[in-house]
């Protein structure tokens, strides 16, 4: 296709890069025929964002007690609980959607 690829610009933030790729064709910058199939990124960490939530003191105390019993920071335990619940709820919605639409299976 293109023998001469455009250089990929330098970005000052993830948001700037995300906006760029949302509006540009990556094939103009990358020769996908030379791309590695199923690459692994062992040191890649997902982007995170700090959030602030208000919790009843009793709930926070219970979380800290559970975290102490598991020997993990309570914030990590909260992330684990949230991830488990989101995965469970997502599976429930996917299952209920396929029940309503059998052709999706």
Task: Describe the structure in brief.
By secondary structure, the protein is mostly helical. It is built from three helices and no strands. The two termini are 37 Å apart.
Secondary-structure blueprint:
Layout: H1 14-23, H2 57-70, H3 74-100
Helix pairs in contact: 2-3
Quickly list its features.
105 residues, mainly alpha, 3 helices, elongated
- Share of residues in helices: 40-55%
**Apparent shape:** elongated
Biggest sheet architecture: none
* Rg from Cα: 22 Å
Give the helices and strands as they follow along the chain: HHH
Described by its quaternary structure, the protein is: single chain
Structural class determined from secondary elements = mainly alpha
Number of distinct beta strands? 0
Mean pLDDT: 88
The number of helical segments is: 3
Strand percent estimate: under 5%
Low-confidence stretches: none
For the record, give the distance between the C-alpha atoms at the N and C termini, rounded to a whole number. 37 Å
What would your notes on this structure say?
The structure is a single chain. The chain has 105 residues and is an all-alpha fold. 49% of the residues lie in helices and 0% in strands. The protein contains three helices and no strands. It has helices at 14-23, 57-70, 74-100. Helix 2 (57-70) packs across helix 3. The longest helix is centred in the last third of the chain and has 27 residues, at 74-100. The chain is elongated and about 65 Å long.
């Amino acid at each position: 296709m293109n023998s001469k690829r455009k250089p990929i610009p330098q970005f000052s933030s993830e948001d700037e890069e995300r906006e760029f790729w949302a509006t540009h064709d990556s094939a103009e910058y990358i020769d996908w025929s030379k791309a590695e199939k199923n690459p692994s990124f062992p040191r890649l960490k997902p982007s995170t964002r700090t959030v602030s939530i208000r919790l009843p003191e009793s709930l926070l105390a219970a979380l800290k007690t559970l975290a102490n019993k598991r020997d993990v920071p309570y914030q990590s335990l909260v992330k684990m609980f949230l991830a488990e619940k989101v995965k469970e709820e997502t599976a429930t919605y996917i299952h209920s959607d396929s029940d309503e639409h059998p052709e999706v299976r």
